[in-house]
Amino acid sequence: MQGILVTTLLITVIGIIVGAGLVFASKKFYVPVDEREAEVRAVLPGNNCGACGYAGCDALAAAIAAGDAPVNACPVGGGPVAEKVGAIMGVEAEVGERNVAFVRCKGSCDVTKNQGNYVGIKDCRSAVLAGLSLTDCNFGCVGLGSCEQVCPEDAIHVINGVAVVNEGRCVSCGLCMKACPKGLIELKPISKKVAVQCRNQDRGPIVKQVCQAGCIGCTLCTRQCEFDAIHMNGNVAEIDYTKCTQCGKCAEKCPAKVITLPVKEA
């Protein structure tokens, strides 16, 4: 009986000492927490996608509260979240137009040829690392759906051999861009419907051999633009969205029909 009492007393004394030590340590090493950090974190979407450049929403909230990141740093939240964060931080948020992902490839199964029936892991990166080319075009969409697999909003799907974005669902997180081993996916302003759906850097005759919908580098589009908004990057045309007025003249003159036309208002 005496042994039990001694043991109980010893455990109690140790508990008191440890507790006192923890209290002392918490006060000694206390780091003040900016209340705004918690408030910012509460309005962030919580995707933890890393598209902002930080390791998740917690890290971004801390960076914003510390003044190391702008209030509009979350691409997923866009303008509405930026305005809320700006109100918390006491600054006016610069809210720009919403961006959406765009796949620069029009090489569906109808316009390019498959080199065989692929059986294996449905991962574009693995296929590219293994040196596999599933279509005749070495620059085109691999079509195994790595972008589709990482999208948290179900906004991109492989249709007829090529990835297609649902702009209504896209939150511009950029995960599909990182997943594409060919670098075919970019972000563009949602209002900019005129875009080049190709990144093939081969010369025209070679392009036509592998894809009926590839840019042949004819430069007709660059000669039509009155606003200096489209130029050749090597053998493929690229659009400067900051200059493009959506007139559609480049798309109308493109012989390969690889430039998307603007939506005409009724």
Structural features:
alpha+beta, single chain, Alpha-Beta Plaits, 3-methyladenine DNA Glycosylase II, Chain A, domain 3, elongated, 266 residues
Structure characterization notes:
- The protein has three domains: 35-89, Electron transport complex subunit B, putative Fe-S cluster (3-methyladenine DNA Glycosylase II, Chain A, domain 3), CATH 1.10.15.40; 98-190, Alpha-Beta Plaits (2-Layer Sandwich); 192-266, Alpha-Beta Plaits (2-Layer Sandwich).
- Helix content is 34%, strand content 10%.
- The chain contains ten helices and six strands; from the N terminus they run H-H-H-H-E-H-H-E-E-H-E-H-H-E-E-H.
- The strands form three sheets. Strands 1-4 form a two-stranded antiparallel ribbon. Strands 2-3 form a two-stranded antiparallel ribbon.
- Helix 2 packs across helix 3 and helix 2 packs antiparallel against helix 4.
- The longest helix has 27 residues, at 2-28.
- The model has no long low-confidence stretch (mean pLDDT 87).
- Fraction of residues in helix: 25-40%
Mean of pLDDT:
87
Structural Rg = 27 Å
Helix and strand composition category: alpha+beta
- CATH fold naming of the largest domain: Alpha-Beta Plaits
Distinct helical segment count: 10
Which sequence of strands runs across the widest sheet? 1-4
Number of strands: 6
Element order: H for helix, E for strand: HHHHEHHEEHEHHEEH
Give a short account of the largest sheet. Answer: 2 strands, antiparallel
Spans of 5+ residues with little confidence (pLDDT < 50)? none
How many domains? 3
CATH architecture of the largest domain: 2-Layer Sandwich
Taking the alpha carbons of the first and last residues, their distance comes to 94 Å
Shape: elongated
Which class of the largest domain in CATH terms? Answer: Alpha Beta
Strand percentage, roughly? 5-15%
